[in-house]
Design brief:
The protein has 406 residues and is of the alpha+beta class. It folds into two domains: 204 residues, de novo design (two linked rop proteins); 175 residues, 3-Layer(aba) Sandwich (Glutaredoxin), CATH 3.40.30. Helix content is 55%, strand content 7%. The chain has 15 helices and seven strands. Strands 3-5-4-6-7 form a five-stranded mixed sheet. A hairpin with a 2-residue loop joins strand 6 and strand 7. The chain is elongated, with a radius of gyration of 27 Å. The termini are far apart.
Length: 406
């Protein structure tokens, strides 16, 4: 008999070894991502796993992973469930299936049915397809990559490599005597589908009801200052009034605005902005600056008049550079403002009237006993809880202001 029908054990098991490693890595990173997501169901802020190293401890320095988790693309059914159903759950179920199949192929070796090997080879490319889609979204929409997500991407690539080797190994196997490929494919797809969906169904069934918590974070006690004192952020199709307390050098504020833009919410709001720089240079509620230079950039937003939205967007876009300039000193920061917006804006920043106007914003926050943190969002007078502006944003808006999502 032709020796190609009796391949060495290494040849018949090599792709299975790669598949086991790939599935284990995918399962591990998907588990980390899911655990991070589920931990936030208690409505508190937690450290997150955000490392390429399996087994690394959670860290508070996980901005890219946190941004990915808060984004509209991290979960399905966000309108129906607080936080939605994380897509990592589907990855967890799928990689568990691939691990089971890979272990079978590893132990079966050359005795594994040709139809099973072919089925594995074909479906092994499914996670890679999803990973490519998520990679494109991360780069084009979020502008950054979550390390645990990248771990899943790499596991998907490795699994696809194993699948390619599995398909190439078929030329060393004798043809099957009765074609059972269709039956194996149908059965395999059913099991893969169930494995992928069951974790999500269990998760959805165990989610707590967050509706009682949505309106428990207080209200504004005082009316907003007269028109002209706050910054107008009126959308193109406003249907609901809102108010934001933000610091232009606050990374969390930047991420919050990006989420609102991705959800299409900003265009549906007639919003007012209260500038609340977390900088002790002007904010007497702080003993030391959290964001040096934020007072100066806040004044620049005030000085921009009808172009305030443009200056605020620029501040968020150039936040890292402005933060570094703020630490270097006011003169360095002013040079960046002058280079972008001209001398007239810098003169306005130095004007005493601008300082008084910013002080009015801070007094408004103080008199309303607003927490010294940013960002904060109010629908009318109702304060939206901090946790409901991130992972639970879409669900909260669906419950309290569904018109802004249409």
């Amino acid at each position: 008999m032709d020796e190609r029908f009796h391949p060495p054990q290494a040849r018949s098991r090599g792709y299975a070894v790669i598949a086991v490693v790939a599935a284990l890595l995918g399962l591990l990173f998907a588990t980390y991502s899911t655990l991070d997501y589920a931990a936030h169901l208690d409505r508190r802020l937690h450290d997150m796993h955000c490392s390429f190293i399996p087994g690394a401890a959670p860290s508070s320095d996980a901005e890219a992973c946190r941004a990915a988790m808060y984004s509209p693309y991290s979960a399905l059914l966000k309108d129906d469930y607080w936080g939605g159903i994380p897509i990592s759950l589907f990855a967890l179920g799928a990689f568990a299936f691939y691990l089971g199949l890979a272990v079978y192929l590893l132990f079966a070796g050359a005795a594994a049915a040709r139809s099973t090997v072919r089925f594995f080879g074909v479906v092994s490319f499914a996670p890679l397809t999803v990973s490519v889609m998520m990679f494109v979204i991360s780069v084009s929409k979020l502008g950054q990559l979550c390390k645990t997500c990248v771990g899943i991407y790499l596991a998907s690539i490795l699994l696809a490599v194993a699948g390619g080797f599995a398909l190439s190994s078929l030329r060393y196997r004798p043809p099957a005597r009765g074609s059972s490929d269709l039956l194996v494919a149908l059965a395999g797809l059913v099991v893969l589908g169930l494995s992928t969906l069951v974790p999500a169904v269990v998760y959805a069934g165990s989610l707590p009801d967050h509706r009682p918590f949505l309106t428990r974070c207080g209200e504004l006690k005082l009316e907003a200052p007269k028109v002209g004192e706050l910054v107008a952020l009126r959308g193109t199709r406003p249907v609901r009034q809102a108010m934001f307390f933000e610091d232009p050098l606050c990374p969390t504020c930047k991420a919050f605005h990006e989420r609102l833009e991705l959800e299409g919410v900003l265009d549906r709001l007639d919003a007012k902005l209260v500038l609340f720089p977390l900088d002790s240079e002007c904010n007497w509620m702080l003993s030391e600056p959290l964001h040096p230079g934020a007072c100066l950039v806040s004044k620049a937003v005030l000085c921009a008049g009808e172009q305030a939205k443009t200056v605020l967007a620029w501040a968020y876009e150039e936040q890292e550079r402005l933060t570094a300039a703020g630490k270097a000193g006011a003169s360095t920061l002013k040079e960046l403002l002058r280079a972008r917006f001209g001398d007239s804006l810098v003169r306005c920043v130095d004007d005493r009237k601008t300082e008084v106007r910013l002080n009015q914003h801070l007094h408004f926050a103080s008199e309303n006993k607003v927490p010294v943190s940013t960002p904060q969002m109010y629908l009318g007078k109702q304060r939206i809880c901090d946790e409901d502006t991130d992972i639970g944003l879409r669900y909260t808006l669906t419950e309290l202001a569904p018109e802004v999502l249409r």
